[in-house]
Amino acid sequence: MDTWNILEYAAWALSALFAILMLSDMARIDTTYDNDLLTSSREGEIEAEAERHVI
Amino acid sequence: MSNTNANAGQPARLQLLRVLGPAHIWALGVGIVLVGEYMGWNFSVGKGGMIAGLVACWVAGLLYTCVAMIDSEVTSTVAAAGGQYAQAKHIVGPLMAFNVGLFLVMAYTMLEAGNAITIGFLLDTVAGLQGHSGLNQQPFIVLAIMFLAWLNYRGVLATLTFNLVITAIAFLAIITLFLVVQMGGSAVPLDFSAVTTDPMPYGWVGIIAALHFGLWFYLGIEGTCQAAEEVRSPARSLPYGTMAGIMTLLIAATMTWYVCSGLIPWEYLGQAGTPLFDAARVTGNSSLMVLLFVGTMFSTLASANGCINDASRAWFSMGRDRYLPIWFGAVHPVYRTPYRSIVFLVPIALIFALGAPLDQVVTFSILSGLLGYTFMTFNMVMFRNKWPLGSIKRGYVHPFHPLPTIVLLLLCGTAYFAVFLGYGTQLIAMTGFYIVASLWFHFRRYRYVRRGDQFTMPWPRPEGY
């Protein structure tokens, strides 16, 4: 087994690690916070607060 | 909760984080595109010779300068995540917006898959040079997508600061190669004799066919406007970052054509996998070879990184407006990223990266991009007609309207013809896909959209309504 074979296994392991990090955090967030809060984002907030578009 | 925006009497809301400046916008736009200088554009030389490569470089440059000017004006006014999707929603209508949103997601996800395939190919090449044949590219393709998705998941500032650093290094690598070759540091002198001895080997059709691949020099610069909801000052940062980006790319594209065409015979250049790296190899300078290999890897990573950022913002915006299930419109309460959209698009990118050939993936990406540019032309005309200058505040007003729009439309028509010459079946298949998706949206999905909530710009009633 040469260096490249080891790198292949390392790449699989790191890929699994990043996937687990994302999925576990997503599961934690989805079970901790209310879905209404998570999906409460609204478009155009900066315009509503800062710009009236009046010339 | 400290990570939410709450005004007196209103419920707490999670918003994307406004932390980006013009440099991040530049990094997002140029980062997505610069890989096109490192590979892909050179097939235009194969289609029509050395002059065709230069014509494609500058004609596509003109097309994208029009795109950048038009986009800067509209985006600096409609500053919302989703970019052109939000523009279409406000200016044209829901069905156009749905299609534009799909164009964006398909273009960026396919390009991300193409970049991941390229990373696997590059590492296979290096392994081959070191005597290891038959490298399994799959783990490296998967790792590239997983790592960049994780980075995007964790926050936009780190993601685009990372992009800024690696994009700057990749750009400086092109400048360095140009300067070294100009100062006589190459073992092989520049040779442009083919310009006179064999100017147009396939005639004018070759020049038109070359245009398809000339788009690679600039494809994706319009992605800057996906960050509209995450920049501190959209009206300033978006036009500034986008216009600086297209100027950077025009310089990089011309230098790339000049160095590669001067060092590599056009017959070989037209088929090369990594033309800038090959040009560095021709110089015989090992430091340049290492630098251009690093530039190739960094530009590919930066492109995939920017694509994940942009595709997820477009998907998130469509979810937020219920064009897709609202579940996708969630914002992470700590990292303030569209985390569900980022995670959802990972397997889609993996399917294309592991299961489809590179040229097909990139062609579908180019076609989706081209459909988006065509939309920009009548979107711009409708924007100026409905809200003439002086009726609403614009962060940037592009000059010579409607000339850039007309030029863009003409060039889009030519590019469609060029794509049809090489990939007619894909063009028809992709059009069919968008027609089916439109029917689904019109008859099944639009009933779930809260029609009054989707128009968020505090503009006056449009002219004629």
UniProtKB/TrEMBL annotation, chain A:
Membrane-crossing residues?
A: 6-23
UniProt keywords (A-Z) are:
Membrane, Transmembrane, Transmembrane helix
Top-rank taxon of the source lineage equals Bacteria
Protein name per Swiss-Prot or TrEMBL: Uncharacterized protein
Automatic annotation (TrEMBL), chain B:
State the InterPro entries in the record.
AA-permease/SLC12A_dom, APC_superfamily
Q: How does it sit in the membrane?
A: Multi-pass membrane protein
Q: Localized where? A: Membrane
Source domain of life: Bacteria
Which sequence ranges are marked TM in the entry?
16-36, 48-70, 91-111, 135-153, 160-181, 201-219, 240-266, 286-308, 342-358, 364-383, 403-421, 427-443
Identify one Pfam family in the record: AA_permease
Q: Known Gene3D superfamilies for this protein?
A: Amino acid/polyamine transporter I
Protein's UniProt keywords contain Membrane: yes
Q: What are the entry keywords?
A: Membrane, Transmembrane, Transmembrane helix
The yes or no answer to whether the keyword Lipid metabolism is present is no
Q: Where is the Amino acid permease/ SLC12A domain?
A: 35-430
GO CC term, one of those recorded: membrane
GO annotations under biological process? transmembrane transport
Main location per the UniProt record: membrane
Which PANTHER family does the annotation name?
A: AMINO ACID TRANSPORTER-RELATED, MEMBRANE PROTEIN
What protein name applies here? Amino acid permease
